[in-house]
Amino acid sequence: MEFVLIVMIVPWITTMSSLKLHDTINEKTSLPMDYPEPQFLNSVTNITVREGSLAILPCTVQHLGTKQVAWRRLDNDHFLTIGTLTWVKDVDIQIEHRRLGDITDWDLLIKHVRPDHDGLYECQITSVEKYVRHVTLHVQATVVKGRKCVQEGQELKIVCNTTGKKKIPDDVTWLKDDQPINSSYFNHVVVTNYRSLGSKTLVSVLSVNTSKMADSGVYICQSSLAEVDSINITILKDISPNVKRGADAIYVPEVSEDYSGNKAESRYSTTCVQLCLIVLCVFLTVT
Fold first, then answer.
1. Any idea where the Ig-like domain is (predicted)?
2. 246 and 240 Cβ atoms separated by less than 8 Å
């Protein structure tokens, strides 16, 4: 009985050894013996993007051979991608792969980037030897919102919502056309800050009660955490001297003489200009 068992086991061991040897030979002969080791090519390792935009984390490899490239966050054990496949249930994460000869790109794309995407990422080559390239992603969460076109005389209000990662920003600095906004030169501008410990947010509101043409310009909001955002404000001049504001407004048309000597109501001369300003305002709002 023992003899029969040994006879049956020996062929099995021989077969398994042959298979392993066959696999080893195939693995070794898939590439030339002198095939160079893979290496990362120089690329940007610090990426800064604004919240909601597309983040592209580059990773370029030469001499990859039969190995794979994988991405992961350094603070997580699981992979985000392996090869061209996404290993997480997130439609906003994918790989952009390109090949040029022996050089391959494995860029990690993160769509609609959020503040929680901020962190350190690792591009690695699956191998016994450890080949890694680290890329840091910074997400700017500062958001400036407001009406880009304001009629002269109306209120101008801009809201700057700064979100700190680990702490609340200590302060917010406002600038207009690169000039700091202070009480000396901008005494008609009021800045009010609202701080929230729970959401780690500092909201700063800049307001002008009655806007003037001189208030047009680029307003910049900068937090103490080096987060910066800006907005371009255009003040539209009121060019309707014959239109009286308020509930008792009365339209007084301009009157001119025609060639026959008869008086005729002229078409309002400023309609075209106003229409152009409205189109400009809509364009600025869309962009």
1. 38-133, 150-234
2. no
Q: List Cβ neighbours of 110 (8 Å cut-off, separation of 6 or more).
A: 54, 55, 57, 92, 93, 117, 137
Same domain (yes/no): 216, 248: no
Cβ 174 vs Cβ 224: under 8 Å: no
**Which residues are within 8 A (CB) of 236 and not within 5 positions of it... i.e. 6 or more apart?**
149, 150, 151, 152, 277, 281
Position 15 in a domain: no
Q: Are 74 and 123 in the same domain?
A: yes
Q: What is the dihedral of CA 194, 285, 190, 169, to 10 degrees?
A: 30
Amino acid at 282: V
Residues 43 and 78 reside in one and the same domain: yes
Q: Are strands 46-50 and 131-140 parallel, antiparallel or unpaired?
A: parallel
pTM beyond 0.85: the answer is: no
What range does the domain containing 130 cover? Answer: 39-138
The single residue listed with the structure tokens 């969460």 is 141
Buried b (16+ CB within 10 A) or exposed e, 264-285: eeeeeebeeeeeebeeebeeee
Could you report the per-residue pLDDT of 93-137, keeping only the tens digit for each? 999 999 999 999 999 999 999 888 999 999 999 887 789 999 999
Residue 211 sits in the same domain as residue 124: no
- Residue 200 has, within 13 A of its CA and on its CB side, a CA count of 10
